[in-house]
């Protein structure tokens, strides 16, 4: 067993006191520890934003890249070395806004990477503008009369694209969050975990209490393999917000379908001492 | 001895098939060939043509004039008849195109023969190849072998051999033909196109991952690697956009695979933030850019050299990069390998700058020597206990290890970072990191190849070119020297860091810059890097490549 302390490092978080990110960070270490994943075998990729800084605050391999492009970096790394556990961790603006195209197309690919999105429905690092998931009417210093474009629904989009694992959790329920993280990591295929999280500084609407009053856990009677029901669940938002595994399937992963990866990771594929005479013959 | 053959027709008629069979036919008959494709941005219709230039001595470019025009439609005749040289002839379908008279018109019922022998219109390609070989007095057995290699299905193969044979007999019957290319020799030469040369170079260099969004003319390299992906264990992933492509490549490279993207100017514009990320995270990557005319979508299937300054300056912030513009197909092969090696050695992005002309043209080259090629990954498999991805060293190069290695964590960041790779706002560290990254660029200068010089030893005028214009300028140079001109050529291939040692010897010469753009970008770069002004320029920007004949005319005007 890899002890939780194994993940500790000396980096000081740049987050506001009381931020939901602290809880998510603690849960992450807990989940990794319970799954017995040594830091050396874990590759975190992240983009830009307060959430995307999270992987700096625990021991892991890390590529903290550009805004919105972390999933693409993670996919490339997973293709190169599919023995790594690859998790993309960023916020709602990064993943659903700037990185929307990569979110969509990598769900289609079903590369075995995990996407953990800290979804606080607001832009924190740029100081309080609306995010793609901000609710209608939310006033900010940019959306001065309130948001007029309806929010992006990541869960519904993921179900519509037949994502192989779609779940939602809440930073204020560590036990639930750890269990969802573990299910996502152990799932074979692309796994989306949307983590609802209050922003104590900029989001005065979707507070801890706001979430607490609306969230309910899906129980055993819910069948997450039924895509039609999952789509119905995905549309629930407002007075009642479901958390748990919304949808899952076991469609083949991208890597499983590549003959190039059958004999081991691509980075170990020999490149020296190879006979290229058959290529030369093409040109005679 | 030289013959210039042009095959023209609509897109979809199989002009490329004729040119690929005929270029190998001439190769195997002992000749040198240079094949250039001109095509439009469409799948069917329009006007496409290929020039196949054949010679007993080495040739390096297309040239003006036509000895044999193979017209698969009547538009080809209209567009090219004025280029027909003395004694030039036109082969056309006299049952489809009527009312053509005179000694220059060789009517052959191409389509009827195709339908009779092969029951397929598309077999007019085979008939046309047969007619050409018959007229030229070539060896039918060589052509027959090529047709066999072209068609795997036995029944289709037999039918096409019949169609070829029928064409050959008709061609052979015109035994007063002027341009004969009888069998000369067996040789070990190759015919290869620029796109394949980059692709083959990449495979030999150990590239095992390519991600790209299709964009002419960069797509050729994606097709090439995909075509060889199973045998050589290469993963080719078509990205949802160019931004994804470069970021996937950086992820794959970070995790240890030699990786590349291929695109054109517009696609590269989308990748530029990723280029800067490669610079900051010190992640090796190779970017192939096949230039086409811009701005914006420009002329998608034509050629230009207008991305030099863009590519050298692309990316926010300051970081080293290697930029090379291969001068011909052979150089494209070796420079691609060099691009991968330097990317790994200095942990930088390498850019291979070709263009539509180079990517799509096929040339005869001597045997490629693979024995001297060295591949060194510069990866540390046994990192020290306190491994730091961005350790500051005397050379600026930090030891590189891969994520997943026991005992080390590999951390990097798009933000300014400390030696470990963690975000920092310590401004002293920031300063040291900038200096560390730029130091690599100073070392990189030692790897840069000086421009190739050819010509008379102490020339009156030095022509200056870069990249794919080499062939046309070189041929014009040979002819100008033959006419008594005191002239030389400096042709740049490696362009960044900019080579400067040539200055010592040539700085007092009179220069003429020859470039495929409208503003003289190499001349601007030379001024920026050396202070040397080049006042005289021959610039071409109509989307077509230079020919030796037009360079000679323009040089004489300036002289």
Explained architecture:
The complex is a heterodimer of chains A (284) and B (559). Chain A has helices at 20-34, 70-80, 92-98, 100-109, 154-160, 174-186, 208-214, 227-234, 277-281, and strands spanning 42-46, 61-64, 85-91, 114-119, 165-170, 191-196, 215-217, 241-248. With 284 residues, chain A is of the alpha/beta class. Chain A has a single domain (8-281), classed as Rossmann fold. Chain A has an eight-stranded mixed sheet with strand order 2-1-3-4-6-5-8-7, with helices on both faces. In chain A, strand 5 (165-170), helix 6 (174-186) and strand 6 (191-196) form a beta-alpha-beta unit. In chain A, helix 1 (20-34) crosses helix 6, helix 3 (92-98) packs across helix 4 (100-109) and helix 5 packs antiparallel against helix 8. Chain A is globular. Chain B is 38% helix and 21% strand. Chain B has helices at residues 15-28, 74-80, 110-118, 124-135, 140-150, 154-173, 194-205, 219-227, 242-254, 265-281, 308-313, 329-346, 356-360, 427-444, 470-482, 502-506, 521-530, 548-558; strands spanning 2-11, 32-38, 45-55, 66-71, 84-92, 105-107, 190-193, 209-212, 235-238, 259-263, 285-291, 322-324, 349-355, 362-365, 411-413, 452-455, 461-466, 487-492, 494-496, 510-515, 536-539. Chain B has four domains: 2-173, Pyruvate-ferredoxin oxidoreductase, PFOR, domain III (Pyruvate-ferredoxin Oxidoreductase, domain 3); 192-365, Rossmann fold; 379-447, no CATH class; 452-558, Rossmann fold (3-Layer(aba) Sandwich), CATH 3.40.50.920. The mean pLDDT of chain B is 96. In chain B, strand 10, helix 10 (265-281) and strand 11 (285-291) form a beta-alpha-beta unit. Chain B is built from 18 helices and 21 strands. An eight-stranded mixed sheet of chain B has the order 6-5-4-1-3-2-14-7, sandwiched between helices. A seven-stranded mixed sheet of chain B has the order 9-8-10-11-13-12-19, with helices on both faces. Chain B has a five-stranded mixed sheet with strand order 16-18-17-20-21, with helices on both faces. Chain B is an alpha/beta fold. The chains are: A alpha/beta (284), B alpha/beta (559). Chains A and B meet through strand 2, helix 2, helix 4 and helix 9 of A and helix 1, strand 7, helix 7, helix 9 and helix 10 of B. Strand 2 of chain A pairs parallel with strand 15 (411-413) of chain B.
